[in-house]
Amino acid sequence: MALRREFRPALLSAAPLLSAILVMAAGALLIASGATPSSPERFMRLAVALPAPVIEISHFASSVLGLVLVMLAFGLRSRLDAAWAASVAVLFLTALLSFSKGLIWEQGLILAAIGVFLAPLRAAFPRKAALSQMEVTPGWLLGAGAAVVGAGLLGVWFFQHVSYEDQPFWSTMVDGDVARSIRAWAGAALAFLGYGVWRLVATAATPRVIGEDDSDFARVRAILADSETAEPLSNLALFGDKRFLFSESGKSFMMFGVRGRSWIALGGPVGRRDERLQLLWRFRELADAHAARPGLYGIGPDDLPDVVELGFSIQKIGECARLPIQDFAFEGQTRAKIRRAWRQVRDGGAQFEVVPPGGIDDFMSELAEISEEWLARQSGGDKSFALGGFNPRYLREFPVAIARWEGKIVAFANLWPTSSLDAFSIDLMRYNWAAPKRIMDFLFVELISWGRDQGYAYLDFGNAPLAGLEDRPLAPVMTRVGRLMFDLGEDVYNFQGVRSYKDKFHPNWEPRYAAAPAKWAIAVLLADVSLLTSGGFAGLTRRPGKADIPPPRKAEPVAGQADPKEAVQGLV
Fold it and tell me: Are 512 and 466 in contact (CB under 8 A)?
């Protein structure tokens, strides 16, 4: 008993992978058996005892169930309890069918032995998820396809070289054994094809989205207001399109989005610092229990030690610009262009103010018009998930900076605060075409002064995608591809313009990362983030409309300065 207790944890740990291998081998055995000739002597003895339809059905069903076992192996590898129960049942059923299809007692004993091995290992499959939720990786799917194709080729070889040496292959088609084998192999192949098509559209079960009418939404707001670890990006939790996982204390959360089988956490845990690792593990375990593929997007250097604990692969995806504002000064040549641009717009009559949260209802319609006009000139439309969109309820949550020109609102930006006063950031930044040139420079400079008065240490300018990636011969493939896109992808996204516009303020650049359980999954993660943010393929391919918008107000150019209206296209 002591020896059993000592080896039981090791056995349970190895059981999912070992069981998956055995069950897949059993399935391949059944498919191969169905595609190859029966033993004439055994078949004749069986034909005396059982009606022909029973033999034919047993032969066909055995091959299809062999494919079922191959598919169930994916669920066993993922530790699904439903896959365990189904595998045990199918193994014992096919053991019986081995006798009724051709008295293949050796095969029946092998299948029964695998079933006996699997039956007491229930504890190794703790995941409460349906078979429709199991994840099938490309490698395992390729293995299943190889098993089906290999069985068919094995059948061709047998009928050409074993019992039909003196006949051409085509002439054996009239033989009942050949027809039986072809039907069995075709059944398995069609079942595999149907399964593959179903996997293209099947998705994992997911927790519900928590919206503003949910009591948990108030918990999110309370945690943000008293968080030790919140970054400006954490305020996207209030957008209303996220799912949440709360810590046991209820004082921390992780927010994530779902696309297909991907569960993508935006940023790291928010709340108490000592609960970060616990919450990361719970997120991975929850995704695992739902047969989903977890990932982290937009995490910073402080999150890396905990992410390494999870065993995730990590990929740099860009850099974040953070400007220290307590000691910020315009004096000197390095910021002369910004200083001149700000003064030009200010002296021209621009006015700036920050409206506190909930105070924008009186001019919400003006902001909506500015937003619609701005969106009409942009590709892709309004955003979600990793970026904010224009939503009146969402905007009421935050302070809103407003710029007026000739007494009218021409630009606005909602602000993301943090309770720690470490940093604040800008979410939406939109202007109409009545605004003067360099209105964005004016707005940023005024916000630097405002943030300094509020006690913030940094102004977070947001991310510059793909910035800071090194194209070195020994760099990871994804890093080199990312650098190539940064250098050559200006037609797709203003990568260099975004970096250049933020860089003229001379901020500190901090790396940002994506992480997933496997390196290949990071590419899938990034694609899913892009689709979540853009609202699917339609959002990605949307192009600017030809709205009847007046041209921008003319202004004297500042020497050597790029037009911020062009550079800021991808800023937020």
Answer: no
